[in-house]
Protein 1
Amino acid sequence: MNKFKKLTIKDVLKGEEDYVGESLKVIRKEDGDINAFITVVEQSSGKIPIAVKDNIVTEGIRTTCASKILEDFIPPFDATVVEKLKKNNFAIVGKTNLDEFAMGTGTEYSAFFVTKNPWDKERVAGGSSGGSAAAVASGEVVAALGSDTGGSIRQPAAFCGVIGFKPTYGLVSRYGLVAFASSLDQIGPITKTTKDAAYLMNVIYGKDERDATTVDKKIDFEVLLEKDFSKAVVAYPEEVFGEGVEEGVKKQFEEFIKFLEKKGVKVEKISFPELKYSVATYYIIAPAEVSSNLSRFDGIRFGTRVEEKGLLETYLKSRKQLGVEVIRRIMLGTFTLSAAYYDAYFEKAQKVRRLISNRLNNFLEKYDFIITPTSPITAFKIGEVRDPLVYYMMDIFTIPANLAGLPAISIPFGFSGNLPVGMQIMGKRFDDPKVLGFANFIERDVPVVFPWEAKK
Amino acid sequence: MRFKPVIGLEIHVQLNTETKAFCSCSADVFELEPNTAICPVCTGQPGALPVPSKQMYEFGILLAAALNCKIHEYTKFDRKNYFYPDLPKGYQITQYFYPLATEGFLELDGKKIRINRIHLEEDAGKLIHSSETITQAESSFVDMNRCGVPLAEIVTEPDIESPEEAKKFLEKLRQILRYLGVSTGDMEKGALRCDANISVIDLENNVQSNKVEVKNMNSFKFVEKALEYEFERIKSQLKRGENVLKETRGWDLSTKTTISMRSKEEANDYRYFPEPDIPPVVISREEIKKIVEKMPELPDEKLNRFKKKYTLTDYEAKILTSSVKLADFFERCVFETKNPKETSNWFLTELLKYTSSEDDFDTLKIKPHHFKELFELIVDGKITRNIAKEIFKEVFETGKSPSKIVEEKGIEVIGDETLIEEMLKKIMDENKDKVEAYKNGKKGLMGFFVGQVMKQTKGKADARKVNEIAKKLLGD
């Protein structure tokens, strides 16, 4: 087995080899099977090979958002996070696949190809950062960046059995992230260890003059990594055992509770009845922002132009390049924002969003963390899910952290069948180091397992 | 008067901040090469984000305070979504739900025109068509320079009662903008743009017509003309008992009429919602106070002060305060001359012959101390007023001091009494009939004798002395 595939950022920092070359070798050898990358960058300076989701702009390197309409888009500038990576000796070896414009949970809505789960190549890698999660899980890169609007870092991390962290909203600059739903989007790391996630957070976070939503706060994400959390008190919503959650996942979650209790952690059950409204709330707010954010991709202002006789025909043909899920959300958002329905949908959704935020914040006054499975299911088969509503319900546990802007991590914890199951730990706003510390506390007993090492 | 117009204005003012509203591009884009003052933010590049300018807020707050508005501590930006090639993001960042200021007024000849709201927003780009009209154009180009230039939108209540009053309102507003230094207010250059709503009340039958919106008026004169035209058009429709359509009409310069652009029923749904890329802007009372304290003296205050302090007439003071630059220059000149009335006279009759009130008086060659020197030469009888006017012109053109000009040109008042007496005697000898007539009571002929001396000396004679000597010779 190639030794490189297991290396962490920390390992690479200590070593002296050509890790970028190693990474490119693995990508060349294995990505034909995995399809994690849309673009592989052969020439890049830096030592630590990292993959960046293809909705984060890179100067001079094609950034497609996995959309036909941006197939040839070469951005004129680097995203703030990319600048920071370059400054800190990271080498961007490629741009990873995603659901078109990050809308989806299986990377099946990529306009180019489906990324396969390294654990089972008939299954999806999750989404929308499926390419990033698969690239890390298959050992093609040391780490990756993803973006998370409703679970898009955590869910693929769970499906692929790696670490995925969504920071508190406002800690990482969104400058250069092609917007999906601006009030929910947040960039974060996908890694093989929580230590690497914390290390990457120290690199990419920080107030950015170019993003008005970033906060000016000094945080050391690594500071609580060695802490003993055996006195922590955590809560889980009883709704976790409700309908729509796979038996295997439920079972594994029970194991997770038992594990924590054995470590001395106090685990309590809470009632979170608003949880069931989070998906509906999300699917009003996010598409509303989508309908506005994506209107510039019309073939005239941005995007590949499909030249037709008249202006209107050109618009219509050019917009047709967008995929079915993107169009669905644009239509949804256009509808809910229209004057006649604004109060009934968007305004109401904003209220419910505040309600859910308040409820979560109240819980987190009392408990150190809220734990849930990351996803109610494990990686599903490619092409298996057809109903968008079924798709949308998969985000039920991850969406609340986005609605409330809270930090949340997904860590692998055991298997259901031979597929990894992820557990989510959600913390208070700006408690990111604590969330990472608690995850590390668990990881010490339950490290990441790679597909090629698992007993099948 | 059977019909009365009801007019409200929507005014867009380009704020002349250093940078654009949401990026660091220069906001001074007038007549630049197309697409040379742009960046990823103002062209809406994927991934770029807007960050609001502080100076835009300061300018907005000054303007709101000058228009006596309630300034809000909590404001927010929203997105106004519409589809047009000159709008790179597909939406305009504006303030819809929480505007900067509301409920103000502007006083116009003692009457208050109420301001409904003032909000901040970004300007769009410009389309350049390959021919006169968009329909004939083979191709169209977009100049993005103007994208993101900050605008303050001012919406008045329908308190304006005549087209002339609308024009006066705009002129007064422009004066305030220039006093504050927040905008050039040039309508011709698009720094101030105005749309008007007009409806007409039939006072006899007590009915009010639908509202008509008028656009495309790019000068104060055209605002007045377009509204006059609309007033007449709606009036005659009312007289004929016709229904006045609720619509948007454009002023057409070539025909001097308004032309229907679209009916209000097809109005856009802008799908406003809070701009998620910009957090709410909260400015405390103290911060607002600090900004407002920087407010300069406004036109009305300055006018009153000039009238009182310098004992000027309303007419004089109005002209002298028409611009800050003119008023400042006046005050600096008075500081030297210590003679406000005389200074005012010279400003009104001479200085403004060669300048206009919006000029930069600091860069003029004529300086305040020149006024002082010139006045002294007159008082000392060294030059006459007529000559002083010529000298003034030369000082204005060259910047030479008045006494230097007098010296160089050998201009000196002829004050030699024997010389004047000889000239007068000769004139009287040649005009014995007039001497006779004077002695018989036609005193007005004094002017004739003095005038003749002035003519012969080309105005260089000391008029006072000529008068005295003439009187003596005529036995008065």
Protein 2
Amino acid sequence: MKHILSVLVNDTPGVVTRVSALFSKRNYNIKSFVGCETHIPGTSTLIIVVYGDDEIIEQITKQLRKLIDVIEVSDITQKKHVSRELVLIRVKADTKVRSEIIQIVDIFRANIVDFQNSSLMIEATGDEDKIDALVEALKSFEILEIVKTGEISMVRKNV
Amino acid sequence: MIKTGAEILIECLKNEGVDIVFGYPGGQVIPLYDKLYDSDLRHILVRHEQGAAHAADGYARVTGKVGVCIATSGPGATNLVTGIATAYMDSIPIVAITGQVKSHLLGKDSFQEADIVGITMPIVKHSYIVKDIKELAATVKEAFYIARTGRPGPVIIDVPSDIQLSSIEYSPLTEIKVKGYCYDDNFINGNVDEMLDLIGKAQRPIIAAGGGIIASGAHNELLEFAEKLNIPVVTTLMAVGAFDTDHPLCLGMLGMHGTRYANYAVCQCDLFIAIGMRFDDRVTGDPGQFAKDAKKIQIDIDDAEIGKIVPVDMGIVGDAAKILGEALKRLSCNPVNSDRRDWINRVRELREEYPLKFEESGTLKPQYVIKRIYELTEGKAIITTDVGEHQMWAAQYNKSKIQRSFLTSGGLGTMGYGFPAAIGAQAAFPGKTVICISGDGSFQMNSQELMTAVRYNLPVIIAIVNNGYLGMVRQWQELLYNERYSETDIKEQPDFVKLAEAYGAVGMRVTKKEEVDDCILKAINLRKTILIDFVVDRFENVYPFVPAGSTLDNMIGG
Ligand SMILES: Cc1ncc(C[n+]2csc(CCOP(=O)(O)OP(=O)(O)O)c2C)c(N)n1
């Protein structure tokens, strides 16, 4: 099962290594790992997406909590949350297919951010499903390059 | 007052109550050693940095304080690694201070640069590299706090030499704040009443005491708890000494080389109460089959240990002494059923039916040597061991009753641990009898420390159980690999007596049973560094023996 862990850490050198080493030491696979600054100076949030059964995730969570530089760990999978990825896709686009691609881009509310004679660069943000669907839709054309960020997530709540 | 980094380091160590440090100098710690030269902090010079880490560990295990070791950058620091990993696996508080190349040379593969913080990341509780002298004092304070609180463990402080040399206005810190780590002595997470309820309902409960009992000093609470509720106690290797082996409720060690009666009792119990033990595979055998008819309660200071290997019905997180103390308080107002006549009788029968035994006749038996060491020291010596058959015999036949008096590398199983650990223990308690029970293989891993013991007049006794084999591996090869003794015959030995003498220690050799007592008594009374080479039966095996991954009732021999 997919789990999204939101980990608040002290922004010290080596903290990312310490956290990621925990996963590799225990042979757990990370799907994505994103470090972001927070509004609190001196801290960062790591959003880590892992697959594993509940027992494994519980163990990971406890091991994470033991790290001195980890301030807080929450598994937000079960909470209402918003998740986003950002993708850049370069797709081959000569004049014959260009309008068709632009239509798809519109449907997905994505943007064209670079325009060349024979290719387009498309930028899209969204949750995993949307990004996957967009990539799938563009597959009927020739995808030249994809770069994608990991997932970032935030819990929905009324504060 | 304006002080240099090196001076601040020494001040801070003293403020933490450190009286002895173990170390080895080198280019990048000269500034620190230069200040040590004038200070009244006692430094013990080892002959290999691995010895410094093990000695600090031995010191920590006997005193309950934080042990300190020092090494220079690069190879000095990497030589500490085995000692740090050993301390990590057994949750022993040590602080390792390593010199590092100057800050501006960091990351350039400079001479004697090693990323020791990176190298040790998986085997420390925490680590620091001090990049600003302003952080130095706070770092040392944090390091000690982290090493000794909660689940203890090793902490590294890597200090570039320019930081040792630079200076700053210094005044001692009294307070620390570590964001993200705060340890509360009195914290208990779990329901003590529910635990007592489960115990009240159990017909055949058993307590398994682990190293956590020693770490938390829960010796007395454990005894009172077991007696009050009438529950038999088994111990792990790490808890040898935590519960009196001669006590009617004591079943000795469980696991791979545990007693038959301990293992049978574990297989037959209906409630397994694990206290400060982490279900190592040497203890459980096949974890899926471990005490499979029993409900399980686990008490541990480390939340991540609860149910990590064997699922448990109930976990309580906190300090063992506090939790047992709390339980005892409640029991005095609200007693639960402690009438376990049938179970206690059953356990007594098991103990009578399957005693630990060995053939006493013929050649000199290793078990006999250890038994006599125990008897002639009246169980009062501090015993350290190396790793192998002699280690298991020591755990079986040296029935320590005193906690913090049996020092062994349980988790990592480090050959070469015993002798430097004995040096650390002896340095802490110069007046006590400290005996390192070693193997002919293990001793050669750190025999150079003979010089350290002799130089500082540390009267450590090294008892080599010399079977001319890497015995434990030979035993596996005999029983599981068709007697194919690949590279375990080490009959070609240095002359251990002469080796001892070469370093200025006393060497003795014992080949016959009749010589054992005299020799041990002489060694105890001489108060000098002494090596006794006990030449024993080459083919003796450790029994009982549960093959790795098997179930605890599937024991060979004994
Ligand atoms: C540093 C290290 N290397 C290898 C091993 C693997 N090992 C475990 S026991 C053992 C044999 C130990 O031989 P010895 O010290 O002579 O003790 P004995 O078993 O004969 O009592 C070996 C090689 C180890 N535990 N530690």
